[in-house]
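step=predict obj=alpha-1,2-Mannosidase n=589
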Amino acid sequence: MVVLISQPKFQRIALLAAGCVLVTYFLLRTDRVPYQTTWGYVHTSFDWAKRQPRYPIVESSMTKLPEGTPRDLPLIQHVFTQDELNESHNKTQADRRDAIRDAAIKTWNAYTEYAWGRDQVQPQSLRGIDTFNGWGATLVDSLDTLWIMGLKKEFKQAVRMVAKIDWAKTDSRDCSLFETTIRYLGGLLSAYDLSGEKVLLKKAAELGEMLYAAFDTPNNLPANAFNFRAVHEGLLYASKRESTAAVGTLSMEFTRLSQLTGDPKFFNVIDNIKKHFERTQDTTKLPGMWPMYIDLHNNFITEDNAFSLGAMSDSAYEYLSKMYTLLGGLDEAYKRLHTKAMSTIKSHLLFRPMLPDAYPASPPDILFSGTVLSNGKLIELLPDVSHLGCFAGGMFALGGKLFHDEDHVRIGERLARGCAWAYDAFPTGVMPEISAVVPCKQTAELSQCEWNETLWREKGPSGADAVKLPKPFTVMRDKQYLLRPEAIESLFVLYRITGKADLLDLAWRMWQAVKAATETKFAFSAIVDVNADGFTTKIDAMESYWLAETLKYFYLIFSDPGLISLDEFVFNTEAHPFKLPKAAHGKGR
Ligand SMILES: *[C@@H]1O[C@H](CO)[C@@H](O)[C@H](O)[C@H]1NC(C)=O
Ligand SMILES: *[C@@H]1O[C@H](CO)[C@@H](O)[C@H](O)[C@H]1NC(C)=O
Ligand SMILES: *[C@@H]1O[C@H](CO)[C@@H](O)[C@H](O)[C@H]1NC(C)=O
């Protein structure tokens, strides 16, 4: 404006006229591009679809999505009776659900007020920060949660912002293929599946085109560290030490993208990964599982010696049975991969903790999943209790239903109850990131053992400054709670599968503890120490998964079991539900 006013009059008129022409031009153009009129859609400034690959894959050599009629898979959810959904049940559910929704609204308001468009809001200092390339991680991750909770006004406000995301614009030199896939791509695909808003699929496809370039390496295995400069120069290589989770957690998102766009290339690259998992499954140092790190650069070497369901591995296992479901049961390879992996996990990773006798009746029937070190002959179990590993209950139970294995459903329940029990064991009512207990001997039945105080003292906290740990915990390697979802995730899955009403009370107890320990004036925050008595010190961090996962699972467990039914949707590891092929579970849907 300042410049315009200082111009001579005729120049001003000329500029105004030129402006009018431009405006008219864009108005006319928008008429031909429906997304722009609806949501103010802006295409990403670099068209990744037009990028020339250094190591192209020709379409004729691609593996296509399996063809055929989706199989009639077993029903996953418990069939709830009207007696179970009685008036008092419905009333309690509604009250609890409303409480979760209030927490979500509070969180969302903090984000829109103080960090709109940024990756996350800091819950205490109320500043926006960018931790995932500044494309608006919380914005995209929350879309489906807003939709599910019926927050339609907020959903529309978010879509309008998402329609303008430019995947070519970021201050970082690289992005994480894994994080970008599960949060951004997963969030967009799920929000599209729920709402049918085409602009979300368009943004997902744009992003998919970009992430596809991560596979432009000499062996077409992905580079998780997606370095923009290396990508543009065709110099990307897959890592010699990549976490198994990073390579094994792209399959659902890339498959859904192929299903929705009809473009087979996304599915082709993750099917290639599956073949490497198949080829190596029986030859690792713990046959049936893959180590936490894999050498991708040298064609998928799996010689490392550490195995776990926690960080670095978790969702690679989670996705095996879920891929079987997403593909309508048309790829038996995923069933074999899952079945073998679960069998090894059951024999070597699962254990029952030694529990004090303080219980009036029998001690609770619970399990945890630890870490195994193996050189191929000696197998050592480290009895870790890791929050990230708490998803395993849901995984076992889902697979058990899917493949008619009631024993696995039961194991899933014991694992889910184990994490809920661990929450209860700490004074805040929340379990830490990583702790350890004393394991019972791993018998086939994973049966209980006697409490041995001497043994616990030997393994347990020692020295003058040892933390006062509740029994039966021996070590606390990381005492934080980071607002994580895995424990409530498994309770949710187990409730939908078994219909057992006491799981709802466990979930509510968990919620009250989490709320009391983490709530700040404007939002919720990760905390420093779950073993603190009374006041909890906050970390001033709230990642996007709090709204995407934790609050969504809390909301869903207290909702009508028909809302996002496990017979119609399958969740990615960031709690984004993808729609299943029509005939997936149960006849007549
Ligand atoms: C209502 O259903 C719940 C489980 O959903 C059950 O625990 C409770 O006993 C039922 N109440 C009545 C009055 O039937
Ligand atoms: C308890 O543990 C100690 C230390 O490992 C061991 O010496 C003792 O035999 C154990 N007691 C029983 C009853 O197993
Ligand atoms: C409780 O809610 C469910 C839906 O979630 C409904 O099917 C059922 O009829 C309700 N029960 C009563 C007693 O109103």
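step=describe
The two ends are 60 Å apart (CA to CA).
step=end
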